[in-house]
Amino acid sequence: MYFEEFTEGQIFTTRSRIITPTDIELFTSLTWAANPLFLRDESAREKGLQARITPGAFIISVAIGLLYQLGLFDHITAMAGIDKLSFRSPTHPGDELSVQATVSEKRETRSPDRGLVKLAIRCENKTRNTVAFESEMLFIILKRPMQP
């Protein structure tokens, strides 16, 4: 989507994705985030959790990927920030996540070819009927090219 196509209050809902143990293992391997809480159920249970958990950074990445599937970022130039990030509940292997994004702000920039779009993000864990995380994300989006 181009900057002009976003309107404040507009709501987008993604399809869902199931988090697999392999997803978690690949992510922790790529990032070197080899925390036993992410890799072993026994370690998680020792810390009072039901089973191993999914790294928060991976959940954020999945949420952004789901939003990409909607075409929201076809004309993105950058993610400018993540604010008010709050993880609400753990995500375990086998959990199904989806995202709801609401355009909370849209504004011009000094650059005539782009603008800022802020999305209020709510990542929902459909398996557990909980919220995995909430945040505000700010994106720089290109404007539609001027016709000659």
Describe this structure in words.
The chain is of the alpha+beta class and 148 residues long. It has a single domain, classed as Thiol Ester Dehydrase, Chain A. Helices cover 23% and strands 37% of the residues. The protein contains four helices and six strands. Strands 1, 2, 3, 4, 5 and 6 form a six-stranded antiparallel beta sheet that branches. Strand 5 and strand 6 form a beta hairpin. The longest helix has 13 residues. The model has no long low-confidence stretch (mean pLDDT 96).
Give a nutshell description of this structure.
With 148 residues, this protein is an alpha+beta fold. It is built from 4 helices and 6 strands, in the order E-E-H-H-H-H-E-E-E-E.
User: Roughly what fraction of the amino acids lie in strands?
Assistant: 35-45%
Q: What is the share of helical residues?
A: 10-25%
Rg from C-alpha positions? Answer: 17 Å
For the secondary structure, the number of strands is 6
Under the CATH scheme, the architecture is Roll
Which sheet architecture does the biggest sheet show? 6 strands, antiparallel
Number of helices: 4
Q: State the shape.
A: elongated
> How many structural units, i.e. domains?
1
* N-to-C CA distance: 21 Å
- And the CATH topology? Thiol Ester Dehydrase, Chain A
What would you call the structural class?
alpha+beta
Helix and strand sequence: EEHHHHEEEE
Q: What is the CATH C-level name?
A: Alpha Beta
User: Which whole number gives the mean pLDDT?
Assistant: 96
Unreliable segments of 5+ consecutive residues? none
